[in-house]
């Protein structure tokens, strides 16, 4: 992938420079990723006396959770667990053992945000047995499934789930099953040189306070990992869809589906399975933010055009939440995405016969061919239930999203082979409104339409 143009690079660097100076960050590194490669890297400030480089390590905090979630999904795909399994089936004796693996992954289990005891991010961690012994009635804060409530404790449990199934530490499983196959050799659970030390910046003076750094032990799966801009660029490419042999593409797409939102019906932020979700500037993004004492980080990816953005800083607080989205907005302003070229393609005759207008009762819908043998069914005028459908080997189609996600669409033919109607989860779509010659449930008034 070619780098961004000079004018784009200047605008991106200006935004990073303004952030580092205005937010008083000891150092700040950022990158834009396109089609799996770093298209731009920029940095300001100093990390231990040197400008940050693509191989400079920073602690990435909760981005760790996404990597742990990938191993959990691999276990699911191997048949070792089901996402609907209660966690108590895998970790006996766990309070709130009725919450499911999926609820833990999506922060809808209702567990307390933090583990009991001292502030876990600033104190040495304890083994899982000690953590388990400290859990009690206060472990649950909400009814499981009721609402989104971010829980670091939940990922402590998921890390133990991984460890018990793999017979090794969660970190070794992540390293062998995720990091190594993706070529993320600069990503580790403890820092290695060159790495940025973490600081707090005094709110009213330009002085620094070193932050403590400990191994979090049982809570490590919630935020232990250190990484580099170069490695997080590879991670952004992974989230965007370049999964290599690590995860099936359909499983990654499942992780990116909204399981919970935290800002209402017109959501701009939510959570999938181990991945945070956001909508900004016409993009639908997946990734994660991270914070630990002395560090802030974020990585976001847009699967639609394989674009990603990331930043890393060694400050406890201060960096703007909008920085990644601002960088993407600059990229879109200076180098807007070109639509893919339209080209005609071969279409099977039986599919072409399906295309066009159909009616659900009196409501018109357009059925379009979207590539291969896949379809979309959209209300004419935009008001109604739209869904995409993937072709199945048996000649039916599976709903992928919207109201009809998971439902089956069938093309029903008459004994002579002519096309009669579409059957979608008992709903009948006909070529004309309430076609009297089709098998409309409840029948059609024999008097027909009247004034």
Automatic annotation (TrEMBL):
Superkingdom: Bacteria
Leader sequence segment: none
Record domain Beta-lactamase-related: where: 18-320
One family name in Pfam for this protein: DUF7586
Domain DUF7586: 347-431
Keywords: Hydrolase
A GO term, aspect molecular function: hydrolase activity
Name this protein carries in UniProt: Serine hydrolase domain-containing protein
